[in-house]
Design goal:
Layout lengths: L1 H18 L7 H14 L1 H14 L7 H13 L3 E4 L8 E7 L3 E6 L29 H22 L3 E7 L8 H7 L8 E8 L3 E2 L6 E10 L15 H15 L8 E8 L10 E10 L2 H22 L2 E10 L6 H14 L6 H12 L28 H5 L4 E7 L10 H7 L2 H23 L1 H15 L20
Parallel strand pairs: 3-4, 3-5, 5-11
Antiparallel strand pairs: 1-2, 2-4, 6-11, 7-9, 7-10, 8-9
Helix pairs in contact: 2-5, 2-13, 3-4, 3-5, 3-13, 4-5, 5-13, 7-8, 9-13, 9-14
Protein name: Amidohydrolase
GO molecular function, one term: para-aminobenzoyl-glutamate hydrolase activity
Keywords: Hydrolase, Signal
């Protein structure tokens, strides 16, 4: 009892020191209010998320999705600056004044080729190509929910501090956040909180891979493939030669490297030598410097392919992201809040839906009950990439994953899209909104936590001066065309 009383008194002192006015409440009371408020507003944010799920707009084309989130924030008292960093769908929504300044990231882009109805069998939406296979419709809605709840607390209790909700388009290969970092939109921010949909609940402790991506374009000479093949110079031959050389190179790169490609243009008819072909490459590695070196070798392979096939080559850098810099000071604080919030409880109907989804995997999945648990605080191997990495090299950053898909579900799958269109997804979204809100409250009311996080960040950064891997190019607004 003595310990609980001391903790309550400490929370009161911290808030009083941070905000000044006498109507402040203890931190614990604020957290209880936040959890209650978010539960009460769940239906509203669920509606927002599912509307964006319906829109299913791909990177830099998320006009309606971004507008809906902006409208929701404006209606709740935020000042919204739209079209930042030369990106029409990017925005920064701000409420409050003074320090600390806490940022919350909100994504909302879908993936091409993943159209899917909210049913437990593969079934596309008629007339629609894209789908939210990574759950970014939930991502954006939860982050907006957290921002609005924090605004309410700052306003009602006259707390000192500023909340910034960042609308960040085109995470899926478009590197939207990189341009926002490059334009200085995170300057003056003390800490950033984010999350990502997943099939489990855990603090994000995996070091995402740095990534460089580009489209390589080869131009040759068209000719009749049977009557005059000697007159042709095939862009497709160049693409295939490049791919072969890069595949041979896999033996001679660090084993953590990941290289993938798709041929986006290879000709129209077999009897016409294609005078144009394009291949789209991703190069990934845990270290940003190694990515740059490996990518340079891929460029050399493209140059060699052009030389050997009598074609010309040009390439366009599409994206480039840093690895994710973890901040354990913040991660430990977030883990406590996530444990408090807890996981996702499925209704009988949702359990039936989940069993049908798991039956489609072709392998034994974890029990559905795993969605209700919180994973231990442990490091994980990362395999994907995220432009949150660039934010993390600019400001102390922390994130979580929440179970928005049934256990065992892979990201970028029709099963993930289907779950995201149901309450299986939106219940996980609420877990994320609650956890981010509680963690941001800790940052707003505990100067020591923020100071320790910054100290760790400065030690990890050392003398490194941020430099975007995508260089000086303008946002690739048409990279999905």
């Amino acid at each position: 009892m003595r310990t609980a009383t001391a903790a309550l008194l400490l929370g009161t002192l911290l808030l009083t020191a941070a905000s000044g006015p006498a109507d402040t409440a203890p931190v614990e009371a604020l957290k209880q209010q936040a959890l209650k408020d978010l539960e009460g507003s769940y239906a509203d944010y669920r509606k927002v998320a599912l509307q964006i799920w319906d829109y299913a707009e791909v990177g830099y084309k998320e006009t309606r999705s971004s507008a809906l989130l902006q409208k929701t924030l404006r209606a709740n008292g935020f000042n919204v600056q739209a079209g930042v960093a030369e990106i029409p769908t990017a925005f920064v929504a701000t409420y409050g004044s003074g320090e600390p300044v806490i940022g919350i990231l909100a994504e909302f882009d879908a993936l091409p080729g993943l159209s899917q109805q909210a049913v437990p069998a593969k079934q596309a939406v008629a007339g629609q190509d894209a789908g939210h296979g990574c759950g970014h419709h939930l991502f954006g809605a939860a982050s907006v929910a957290a921002g609005i709840e924090l605004k309410k607390l700052l306003q009602q209790h006259k707390l000192k501090g500023t909340i910034k909700v960042y609308g960040t388009p085109a995470e899926e290969g478009g590197s939207g956040k990189v341009y926002m970092v490059r334009d200085g939109l995170f300057k003056g921010v003390d800490a950033v909180v984010h999350w990502h949909p997943a099939n489990e609940n855990r603090t994000m402790l995996n070091n995402y891979l740095a990534n460089s991506s580009a489209k390589f374009r080869f131009r040759g000479v068209s000719a009749h493939a049977a009557m005059a093949p000697e007159r042709g110079r095939s862009g497709l031959d160049a693409v295939e030669a490049m791919n072969h050389m890069v595949n041979l190179m896999r033996e001679h790169v660090p084993q953590e490297t990941r290289i993938h490609y798709v041929i986006t243009s290879g000709g129209k008819a077999p009897n016409v030598v294609p005078d144009y072909a394009e291949v789209y490459y991703y190069v990934r590695h845990p270290k940003k410097d190694d990515v740059a070196a490996i990518f340079a070798r891929v460029v050399k392979a493209a140059e060699g392919a052009a030389l050997g096939t009598g074609t010309s080559m040009e390439y366009e850098v599409i994206g480039g992201t840093h690895d994710l810099l973890l901040n354990e000071t913040l991660a430990k604080a977030l883990q406590q809040n996530l444990t408090r919030v807890g996981g996702v409880q499925y209704s009988p109907q949702e359990q039936e839906f989940g069993r049908k989804i798991q039956a489609s995997f072709g392998f034994a999945a974890p029990p559905l009950e795993a969605a209700a648990s919180i994973s231990p605080y442990t490091m994980h191997e990362g395999g994907g990439s995220t432009d949150v990495g660039d934010v993390s090299y600019t400001v102390p950053t922390v994130g979580l994953e929440a179970a928005t898909w049934v256990p065992g579900t892979a990201a970028h799958s029709w099963q993930a899209v289907a779950c995201g269109g149901t309450e299986i997804g939106t219940k996980g979204m609420l877990v994320a909104a609650k956890t981010m809100t509680l963690t941001a409250l800790d940052l707003l009311t505990n100067p020591d936590l923020l100071s320790q996080a910054k100290e760790e960040f400065n030690q990890d950064i050392g003398s490194y001066q941020y430099k975007p891997l995508l260089g000086n190019r303008k946002p690739a607004l048409n990279y999905r065309d």
